[in-house]
Amino acid sequence: MGLKGLVIKSTGKYYEVLDPETDKIYTCSIKGKFRIKGIKTTNPLAVGDKVYFETTNKEGVIYQIEQRKNYIIRKSVNLSKQAHIIASNIDQCLLVATISQPTTSTGFIDRFLITAEAYNVPVVLVFNKSDLLSKTEHDYCDKLQKIYTDIGYKCLATSVKSGDGIEDVKKLMKGKINMISGHSGVGKSSLINKIEPSLDLKTTNISGYHHKGQHTTTFAEMFPLSFGGFIIDTPGIKGFGLVDMNKDNLFHYFPEIFKLSEQCKYNNCVHINEPGCAVKQAVDDQISESRYRNYETIYNDLEADQTYRIDPYK
Ligand code: GDP
Ligand code: ZN
């Protein structure tokens, strides 16, 4: 009998596949080839894959994969042409940021958003530790939320300590496959424990804590949320990994700049110094100064160093 399921764990040898209709989990092997066009992958299937499988009892054989809507990969260090698929079909990534203790810079946020755009994963910005903010910091947080909301990113303010905004986070996560990223210390583990206390032990990886030199496996795992949906734990991966980008296309990953670029005088305008650039004219109006400044900085980095890779965590 053929069933459709979701790969929730992969060990490289076998896969755990959840049948959402019955909530049963099957241990499956694969039959046939599952290749992505254009890249060689070290693993044919990953967590998040939607697959078809045949089963007799508790075991099954996967014979087909549904097209992935997105996937994140890590390039193999030794074999540069090989890539490892870490997870697929991610509905959204929650980027946890803090205005203070620690400060998350807009440079980090914007670099992160570029990598997420490149991987086609929607991002929700969660500004945590709202209980710690002074009046000035609150105003700044509101300002940031307005900037990113206007571009099209969902934003939330939360405090794990007071409980503010936690229900909104749950509502957003419900029924979806979620990833959580952000700098160390912003409250990722605390947030996860708050929304799903039973995940406490299992999610130590999400906090980004790893021993130096420790061999980190790259097999991700999905944990079900009691209110519906999943959290993906990607060991050793805090964001989406490095992204190679051509400086001339950089603006494609800034949605608001991309939108305005249609109005630029020159077809190949890169929005740096061109006369009649609609983007430059809109800075401090439709385009926030900090977003444009970060665009310029990253553009210059890409121009100065051809091997520069966008890595928000660097
Ligand atoms: P992670 O590294 O992102 O997983 O961060 P943790 O969850 O380990 O949190 C780092 C520190 O921030 C811990 O001491 C938490 O108790 C604290 N923390 C987390 N969320 C909040 C919050 O909303 N308000 C305050 N005041 N502290 C928080
Ligand atoms: Zn322009």
- In CATH, the topology of the largest domain is named Rossmann fold
* Share in β-strands: 15-25%
What is the strand tally?
14
Residue share in helix: 10-25%
Q: Give the neighbour order of strands across the main sheet.
A: 11-10-9-12-14-13
Main sheet record: 6 strands, mixed
Which molecules other than protein and nucleic acid are bound? guanosine-5'-diphosphate, zinc ion
Radius of gyration: 21 Å
Uncertain segments are 207-216
CATH class of the largest domain: Alpha Beta
Order of helices and strands: EEEEEEEEEHEHEHEHEEHHH
Care to describe what's here?
With 314 residues, this protein is an alpha/beta fold. The chain folds into three domains: 3-65, OB fold (Dihydrolipoamide Acetyltransferase, E2P) (Beta Barrel); 78-233, P-loop containing nucleotide triphosphate hydrolases (Rossmann fold), CATH 3.40.50.300; 247-303, Ribonucleotide Reductase Protein R1, domain 1, CATH 1.10.40.50. It contains seven helices and 14 strands. It has helices at 106-119, 135-151, 166-173, 188-195, 255-261, 278-282, 289-304; strands at residues 2-10, 15-19, 24-30, 40-41, 50-55, 59-65, 71-75, 82-88, 92-98, 123-128, 154-157, 177-181, 221-224, 230-233. The strands form three sheets. Strands 11-10-9-12-14-13 form a six-stranded mixed sheet, sandwiched between helices. Strands 1-2-3-6-5 form a five-stranded mixed beta barrel. Strand 1 and strand 2 form a beta hairpin. Helix 1 (106-119) crosses helix 7 (289-304). The protein is globular. The protein binds guanosine-5'-diphosphate and zinc ion (ZN). The site of zinc ion has 8 residues, from helix 6.
